[in-house]
Design a protein that fits this description.
Blueprint (H helix, E strand, L loop, with lengths): L23 H5 L5 E2 L10 E2 L2 H13 L1 E9 L12 E7 L2 E5 L8 H6 L4 E4 L2 H10 L6 E4 H7 L7 H9 L1 E2 L16 H9 L4 H14 L3 H13 L22 H21 L3 H4 L2 H10 L4 H5 L5
Parallel strand pairs: 1-8, 2-5, 3-6, 6-7
Antiparallel strand pairs: 3-4, 4-5
Helix pairs in contact: 5-8, 6-8, 10-12
Length: about 300
């Protein structure tokens, strides 16, 4: 993919532009971003059997260098933050897309990568779900956290890849329902591209961190993320209902609490995002109106 990068269009013979004569086009020009549209090795088949997993584990164990890792969830569709697709890429092994629904225990793969550095973008988002599949890295590098330490203005993966590599990653499938089966080809292409240049991005960020004298600091931050304990359950989580500040009296607050609790139990049992069972604004509408019957409740505009 390196050959697709835009060339450095410096001034001829290295001559510097004269600030007095430079046009706004010259001074404000932004380097072109080359769209990254296809994985270098094509879209790999989704791994969903133990036999295929064993082959992938052997290939990745024989690979070299760090391994790029990403995970896709179904936030806004399913209950919790479970992982529904795992993507990995390593030199010598290529890219693998693994179905953790069909293969909930990925210990075999984790064992194959003991001692290998795992490269993430925003590891704190992916690690909790990966741990459910027994994927436990022995060390990590987080390009998102590294970008923050470097002071980059935008630290999303697409933005950092564009700024540091001059490549464009599409993000239109980042918020889709990854629990869907079978996964559409365009989603799998997106998933494979998310790890396509992650190791290369890691090299650039690591070099800049070293130049900035922040390499040791970054390593400590990465280790803290890797070893972070599970999040402590929130006290009174129902108080996170959007717009709760509009409710003041105790009786209506109690209604919000009971509706939130019922919604949570229902969502957990059905494995559906709570907001799809009953949106926050409907909870607030019921608490404000205090309907005395089911017909009165469903007659509310929010219902």
């Amino acid at each position: 993919m390196l050959s697709d990068r835009p060339a450095d269009d410096g001034a001829a013979d290295g001559a510097a532009l004269d600030p007095a004569t430079a046009t706004s086009t010259e001074t404000d020009a932004v380097p072109a971003v080359v769209p990254l549209t296809e994985p270098a090795d094509g879209i790999p088949p989704v791994v969903d059997t133990l036999e295929e997993l064993a082959r992938v584990a052997a290939a990745f164990e024989a690979g070299t260098g760090p391994v790029a890792v990403d995970a896709e969830r179904a936030s806004g569709y399913r209950y919790g933050q479970h992982t529904y697709l795992v993507q990995l890429r390593r030199e010598g092994a290529g890219t693998a897309l693994i179905d953790p629904i069909a293969l909930p225990d990925l210990t075999m793969l984790s064992d194959a990568l003991v001692g290998v550095e795992w490269v993430f973008h925003a590891a704190s988002q992916d690690l909790p779900g990966l741990l459910e599949q027994n994927l436990r890295p022995s060390r990590i590098f987080d390009t998102e956290l590294g970008a923050r330490l470097l002071g980059l203005d935008r630290v999303g993966l697409a933005a950092v890849v564009a700024e540091l590599l001059g490549l464009g990653l599409a993000k239109e499938h980042s918020a889709v329902d990854w629990s869907t089966r079978p996964l559409p080809e365009q989603w799998l292409r997106y998933a494979a591209l998310d790890v396509e240049v992650l190791v290369e991005l890691r090299e650039i960020i690591a070099e800049r961190l070293a130049v900035a004298g922040k390499a040791e600091w970054a390593a400590q931050e990465f280790e803290a993320v890797r070893l972070a304990p599970p999040a402590t359950p929130r006290v009174e989580p129902w108080r996170r209902v959007s717009g709760l500040h509009a409710i003041h009296d105790a009786h209506r607050l109690a209604v919000v609490r009971e509706l939130w609790t019922t919604r949570e139990e229902n969502a957990r049992q059905r494995d559906i995002s709570p907001g799809r069972v009953l949106p926050d604004h409907a909870i607030l509408a019921a608490a404000q109106a205090l309907p005395r019957s089911v017909p009165q409740l469903v007659a509310l505009p929010a219902f």
